[in-house]
Amino acid sequence: MxxxxxxxxxxSPGAENATARAFNLAxxxxxxxxxxxxxxxxxxxxxxxxxxxxxFRQQSEKRGREATVQIQERAxxxxxDAVRTVHEGTPYRAIVEYIDENExxxxxxxxxxxxxxxxxxxxxxxxRVITLANVPxxxxxxxxxxxxxxxxxxMYDHVVIPTDGSDAAERAADHALGIAERYGAxxxxxxxxxxxxxxxxxxxxxxxxxxxxxxxxxxxxIATDARxxxxxxxxxxxxxxPHEEILEYASGVDADVIAMGTRGRxxxxxxxxxxxxxxxxxxADVPVxxxx
Length: 292
Description:
The protein is an alpha/beta fold. The protein contains nine helices and ten strands. The protein has two domains: 4-141, Rossmann fold, CATH 3.40.50; 158-291, 3-Layer(aba) Sandwich (Rossmann fold), CATH 3.40.50. The protein has a ten-stranded mixed sheet with strand order 3-2-1-4-5-10-9-6-7-8, with helices on both faces. α3 runs parallel beside α4 (125-132) and α7 packs across α9.
């Protein structure tokens, strides 16, 4: 399923969860781990009024180099093939270039949770990679006190697949079903009738019925694929604010990963930042697997 898995790192604490998931997927599929650090701070993360940029850069480089060595050594100890690289350049650009040049099949990287508009850092590295990469990206919440999941086939027991019937959602579902098949996970396919649409509450019942039917068709298509793989599958049509409903549902079924499509590729991350997927990436406590 995945032959080359990329783990970008800047040496931030709390990345153990992301690394563990990358290692586990690599071990179950005999994939090679690629560890990348980009030397070049994301200046959107730096307070230019109070920070010496050169000092920040040197500290970042040292921390990143040490992190790549540690991750490579851990991968080798687990019997995995692992390569380590340090690139100069803006992090998200270096990551995307590395993906294109090294036949990367999957990126697993940490992301800082954001819950308020004022705390959402426009153009974060992870969000830019999600927007620009032509391969799936698994975003895993960074947290210093995070509990690292136990390695093994129990790492993914419940896979949640929200769909809107788009091609991107179908591609995300394909990857999610691949993971579910590998780990013997239960599959949960959901569609959310978006009540935030202007005038929804005043819409005729016939329109609401069509929306529900469209959602049913979308989830059933994925559910059929899951059944053909002999996977346990449930489907649900929800109603409300999409990201809120998806997160609540995922929590309720104790999801181990949420798999979703994104809107497309552009350096202007506003196209992603306003989307349901972006809101979930920022808020989810569980990994979010995205495909464009």
